[in-house]
Amino acid sequence: MKTFWDERYRSEAFIYGEAPNAFFASKINLLDPGKLLLPAEGEGRNAVFAAKLGWDVSAFDWSEEGRKKAERLAGKEKVVIEYLVSDLEQVEYKKESFDLLGLFFAHFPEKVRHGYHQKLSSFVKPGGKLIVEGFAKAHIALSRANPKAGGPKDEGMLFSLEIIREDFPEFQWELLEEVTDFLNEGTFHVGESALIRAVGTKLDRDN
């Protein structure tokens, strides 16, 4: 899969566009800047947008080509982001050090998903936020009908409301919903899409 993403990101064009994910942009604008972690950040569109708002941004992806594109975009927008090339198995950050975790179309194999989500959760401070947008299981039919809608072809990698609740039990949900919406993000997210959207706050251990 690393080879797959390196090949996809090697093009000159930003294949998911340079603009941030619209759901992310609408939610982060409501928050005071702090420390943000963006896993599977690809070409850096969300990282650069957040940095322009004053966030201290850490991001990672296993694609070296993705990192190159992200740093190019950051240079264009005159911001600085920290971007590591790593998979989630190996990446390490200080526990409870981030004010916000953003997961945008970060889909992992079913057998490792819960453990990966728990690891990411451990990096968020109590009182910190989680914002998620990803494809719901119902998206599999939409992507078959319209390949430009994108998303994993393995239904086991797609989300449900129950999966988000079970994988992030430390969070109290302000928003947790499944919706159908039209995405228009670059070349590979174009069309009607079944989506899971979530915004939550990590509870203190005593709660």
SSE layout:
Layout lengths: L1 H8 L12 H7 L6 E5 L5 H8 L3 E6 L2 H14 L4 E4 L12 E7 L5 H13 L1 E12 L3 H7 L15 H7 L3 E15 L3 E14 L5
Parallel strand pairs: 1-2, 1-4, 2-3, 4-5
Antiparallel strand pairs: 5-7, 6-7
Helix pairs in contact: 1-4, 3-4
Explained architecture:
With 207 residues, the chain is an alpha/beta fold. It is built from 7 helices and 7 strands. Strands 3-2-1-4-5-7-6 form a 7-stranded mixed sheet, with helices on both faces. Helix 1 (2-9) packs parallel to helix 4. The termini are far apart. The model has no long low-confidence stretch (mean pLDDT 95).
Between the first and last Cα atoms, what is the distance in angstroms? 39 Å
Strand order of the largest sheet: 3-2-1-4-5-7-6
The residue-averaged pLDDT reads: 95
Structure class = alpha/beta
How many strand segments? Answer: 7
Rg, Å, rounded:
16 Å
What form results from the Cα inertia axes? globular
- Biggest sheet details: 7 strands, mixed
What is the helix tally? 7
Spans of at least 5 consecutive residues with low confidence:
none
Amount of helix: 25-40%
Quickly list its features:
207 residues; alpha/beta; seven-stranded mixed β-sheet
In short:
The chain has 207 residues and is of the alpha/beta class. It has helices spanning 2-9, 22-28, 45-52, 64-77, 110-122, 139-145, 161-167; strands spanning 35-39, 56-61, 82-85, 98-104, 124-135, 171-185, 189-202. It has a 7-stranded mixed β-sheet, sandwiched between helices.
